[in-house]
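Risk register update: the risk of archive-format incompatibility is retired. Evidence:
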Amino acid sequence: MTVFKKKIMSQNLLNRSFLKLLDFTPGEIEYLLSLSAELKKAKKTGAPLDYCDLGFAGQDNPGKFDWRLLGKSALLALLMAGFVYLLVWACQRLFLLDFRIIWPYFRPFSLARLGQFFVYIPFFALFFVLNNSKILAQMRTPAASRPGFKEFVTCWWKNAVCMAGGIFLICLVEYIPFFLGLGPGADLLFSPLFGGPFMSILLVFLPQILSLSLLCTYIHRRTGHVFVSGLTAGILSCWIIAGSSAML
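Archived output:
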């Protein structure tokens, strides 16, 4: 009996709305993530899945979600992002440099944008941790555990396809008809509501996602778990959106 199966009788999820995250305790969320992954792996291979397979623990304690590792990873992610923030602030103050891809990529926060960052960051962090658990941990290849630049590139391009492949295909659908003189692809297939600026920002998102996939691949190969890579990607993405692009 695996560690997950032992928890089944202690979890009562009757009459819960699966659309409301606030209806669940952290322990119940942890249980659902673990159980869904275990059932999927058991269906394919018949082998049980542990927290190390999910990227939520180290190999020294694979049967338990490592909250201490999460805390240490959050601190490391904050320190790395904070160092980048200081560099951006110094470059803007000293050299008047504006880091941008069409719109600003990174820039110092105003008070209002900092408040918006704290509103968004839980959702960005959760998304990237779960995303990296699936792509970097559960779908990892043998090359992920081998050193060397060739193995790194092998891991990265597969991760990049998973993270940015959908956006790339949508860009092709949108811009191939456009450059052929037929008009934007979204307008032709659907309606003008789907075209315009909504499709233009895909060309901005694509290099951002590719950059994050490169960063996440490198960090995951160095750490062996998904916390540092997921939290760092979440912080940087939230900084781009809240600090440079969107305002309430």
